[in-house]
Amino acid sequence: MAALQAIKQFRIRELGSLLKTTPVATNALPKVTNPFLPFKNPESGRWAPPKYSLRRQAELIKHARASNTLHLLPPGPKLRSKELQSAFAAAAKDLAQEWWTGKVQWEGELKEKVVPGAEFGNRLYAGKKVMFKGHKWERTMAERMKKRKLLMKGMEARIERFKSVRTSDLAARVDVVLTCCYNTDLQEENSEPSQCTAECIIFETAILVSMGAYTTSYFRFPFMLSIICV
């Protein structure tokens, strides 16, 4: 009873004066602005928001479905035209004699957005190649595996080549280079390592550090520490 009363109050509030004064004709129906849609003022050209918010529209539709009076509501974002057409067929017969149930023509264009899969009840994933987005590590797995496969190609040969180089032999060769560079710098007036010598030391030391070879060169040439830190 409360649901029917809510629909009746809505009809009287919006159409009360119009239905009482306008005679009911078969060819001409009274035109009423749809309160569920935005309205454009023809004089100013400005748009006015709907008279009823989406929340109030949903409440009225809920009451109309409970009282079988869905055909008395205008179309809107919450009530499509197809649903209204089926509601007219199942309209309540006992309310046909009530004056507030008279037919009217609602003015306003309802632009219905075509959603793929709406007719099948699968609007979320209709027309998509991938159903679920998944985690980031799942989305990037194919690219990571491709890169990993490329890096692992020939890994055994690289490991053997790495193991074939003795760290002690490499450290000894670097010590010889450093000794020669240092002796050459001592013959100059400044007795400080040149830029070429410094670059050579940094490069060779980086090789030793990456190979895990730590020799006594740091103690033999104290200036190496300052060069590396710079």
What do you see in this structure?
Residues 213-230 have low confidence and may be disordered. By secondary structure, the chain is mainly alpha-helical. It has 2 domains: 2-107, no CATH class; 165-229, no CATH class. Strand 2 (39-40) and strand 3 (47-48) form a beta hairpin. The strands form 2 sheets. It has a two-stranded parallel sheet. Strands 2-3 form a two-stranded antiparallel ribbon. The chain contains 10 helices and 4 strands, in the order H-E-E-E-H-H-E-H-H-H-H-H-H-H.
| SSE pattern, N- to C-terminal | HEEEHHEHHHHHHH
Mean of the pLDDT scores?
A: 74
Uncertain spans, ≥5 residues at pLDDT below 50?
Answer: 213-230
How would a textbook summarize the main sheet? 2 strands, parallel
Strand order of the largest sheet: 1-4
Report how far apart the termini are: 88 Å
Helix content: 40-55%
Keywords: Ribonucleoprotein, Ribosomal protein
InterPro entries: Ribosomal_mL59, Ribosomal_mL59_dom
GO molecular function, one term: structural constituent of ribosome
Protein name: 54S ribosomal protein L25, mitochondrial
In short:
The chain is mainly alpha-helical and 230 residues long. It contains ten helices and four strands; from the N terminus they run αβββααβααααααα.
Spell out the key features of this protein.
Ribosomal_mL59_dom; mainly alpha; 230 residues; two-stranded parallel ribbon; rod-shaped; 2 domains; two-stranded antiparallel ribbon; disordered C terminus
